[in-house]
Structures are given as C-alpha cells and as structure tokens.
Amino acid sequence: MPLALVALAIGAFGIGTTEFVIMGVLPEVAGDFGVSIPTAGWLVTGYALGVVVGAPLLTVLGTRVPRKKMLMALMGLFVVGNALSAVAPAFSVMLAGRVVSSLAHGAFFGVGSVVAASLVAPEKKASAISLMFTGLTAANVVGVPVGTMIGQAAGWRVTFAIVAALGVVGLLGVARLVPDLDHPGGATTARTEFAAFRNPQVWLAMGMTVLGFGGVFAAVTYIAPMMTEVAGYSPGAVTWLLVLLGVGMFAGNLLGGRYADRALMPMLFGSLGALSLVLLLFTFTAHDKVLAAITLTLIGALGFATVPPLQKWVLDQAAAAPTLASAANIGAFNLGNALAAWLGGLVISAGLGYTAPNWVGAVLSGSALLLSFLAAALDRRAKAAPADAAPTPVR
Mind telling me which residue stretches traverse the membrane in this protein (predicted)? Predict the structure, then answer.
C-alpha cells in the first residue's frame, strides 16, 4: 500500500480522537469552566453540528480545488480548532474551537476516500479506503482512552494540545506523501452533485443514519458520569471502559463491512434491532459494574456494525454523486450525535437520572429500524415496477 494512505490514516486518527475524547474528559471540562454536565454536552453537540454543516459545504466548495491542497487546508483547519480549544479561556471559546475543528471532519473523509481509491489499482480500492478509516477506528481503541487518561492526569488542555500536534503530523504527511492529484476529466458540478438528492431513498438513508447512530451517542455522550455516579466506577476506570467501547466499535465495523456486501438489509435489520434492545437493557445493567462493561462493549459493536451497511446503502442510492453523498452521510452521523447529546442532556436536566439517555437511545434506534423497513419495501417496489409496467404483448 502507498505511504500516502498512512498520512490519511494519521489524519483520520486525529479527527477520530478529537471527536470522541471529549466524552471521557467531560466532567473535568465542566468543572474547570463551572458549567453543568448537560451544558458541557454542547461541546459534543456543537462539534456534531459543525460536521453536519461543514461536510457538504466544504466538499462542494472544493470540487474545483486539487485534492491534495484541499486535504492540506482541511488538516490546517483541524489544527487551528484544536489549538484554540487547548488554550480556551472561557467555555464559549472552547465551543468555538470545537466547531472550527469539526468543519474539516466530513470533507476530509469524503475527499480522502476519493484520494485513497485513486492511489491503488481498481481491485484494491475498498482496501485502500478501509485503511484510511482504520485511523478512525484505532482512535476509539487507542487515542480516546489514552487522551482521557492524559486529560485526567495532566489536564484536558494537554489532551487537545496533543491532538493539535497529531494534526500537524497529518498535515505534513499529506504534504510530503500524497501526490498531486487533479480532478478527473468528468469532475461534477455542484448542480450534478445535488441532483442525486432528488431520490427519496437518499433521504431515507440519511434518516436511518441520524437515528441509528444517534441511539449510540445518547448513551455514550454521558458515559463518564453514568459509569462513575451509577455503576460505581472510579474516574480513572473510565479510560479502560472507553477501551472496551473502542474494541467493540472496531470489531463491529469489521463485521458490518464483511456481511453488508452479502446481505445488506438483513445486516441492517439485525444490528439496529439488537442495538435498540441493548440500549434499553443498559438502563438496568448500568447499575452493575460487570454488566455495565459488557453492555457498553456491545453498544460499541452493534452501533458501528450499522456504519458499513448504512454507508453502502447511501452510495448505492446516490451513485451519480458518491463524493458528496459520502460526506453528507458523515454529516448525518454527526447530526445523530448532536440530536442524541441534546436529548440526553434534556432528560438528565429533567431529573430523570444519568441512565435516562439509554432509553432515549433505544427509541432513536428503534425509529431507525422502522425507517429501514420502509426503505427496503420501497426498494422492492422500485425493482418490481419495470416488470409490472411492461406492456402486454399484442396477439
């Protein structure tokens, strides 16, 4: 594999770390700024909303920009945002830093996927894209737990300073290792890209992504206070719980990718249904240390098992504009994160306890399951329509 893929993976590792590590240090950040846990949850919501806006916007604006320059600009934006978070004197500045860094998230993965695929032979494109995304899954196994541990020991500002440094490494790697790539002769315009969204199935797919992944983040956003206040873990144990969550995500992503090509919709039905059930059970298992750890691992696995089938479904339904569809779907994942963080904060603020976000997540995932049934039914109807509409032969 080309070394350029390593540079892309490093960038993905940094982005994945900054997105998820905030959940491990949320109590420390809230304490330093003197805000409540639900208010600090806006650092998750703000980042997610930034991805929702930045993913399609920057991808469309960059349709005429050389891929390498676009990736470098995105990594530069990421570095600035994390550096601002690290030195933020007030909560509002910290939130602004999170939003700035989030703008690069979706476009980086959208453009990066195209670059990764162009670096290898056609029969290795999927492997190349997978290698880039390995940086994101590795962030959940290594970056987030280590970042949480550093944040609890040396302060959360050190964590974000290190993430900014990772961004610099990724930027230098792209500058050094990624070749200059011009857009193909058939480069699409913004109008062509957006035309794919006339297909209702694309919107259904986005809805499944928002609700399905939102179910995961309803529970995961407030995992630190839930595990310390309800399960009885020490703050230091949150690091190892995040390792379990990351291992679950890594395994679920691999399994989802393996089986999505064989039976996409059955895989999606099974993972969303099981996710809804496990999230509902988490309301009860969160009161026991062992059961809480097991359930958390399952949530990570089932949540990320939905990612490959959801991403493939979107690309199948928007084949005319895969770059924008890919970036927009990453935005949809983060819209689900924002929705879940907001709803989770509401039920906690209402006095329903730190386990209340779990049943909110179960409702969101269950709604995604219903949408997947509708999408499958419409797909079957569309495939049957040509046969039904065939004219009767004249005798």
Answer: 42-61, 73-96, 102-121, 128-150, 156-175, 202-225, 237-256, 263-284, 290-310, 331-353, 359-378
3-state class of 44 per DSSP?
A: helix
Distance CA 75, CA 98 (A): 14
Where are the domains positioned within the chain?
Answer: 1-181, 189-383
Lookup: tokens for 152: 């609890």
Token pair of 108 as six digits? 């980086």
Fold equal for 1-181 and 189-383:
yes
* DSSP conformation class of 63: T
> What single letter denotes the amino acid at residue 184?
P
Q: What is the DSSP string of 307-371?
A: HHHHHHHHHHHTTT-HHHHHHHHHHHHHHHHHHHHHHHHHHHHTT--TTHHHHHHHHHHHHHHHH
- What CATH number is given for 1-181 in this structure? 1.20.1250.20
Whether the Cβ atoms of residue 364 and residue 213 lie closer than 8 Å to each other = no
Which pair of structure tokens corresponds to residue 331? Answer: 């935005």
The CATH class for the domain spanning 189-383 reads mainly alpha
Q: Is the pTM of this model over 0.85?
A: no
Distance CA 301, CA 298 (A): 5
Contact 82, 148 (CB under 8 A): no
Structure tokens at 19: 């997105």
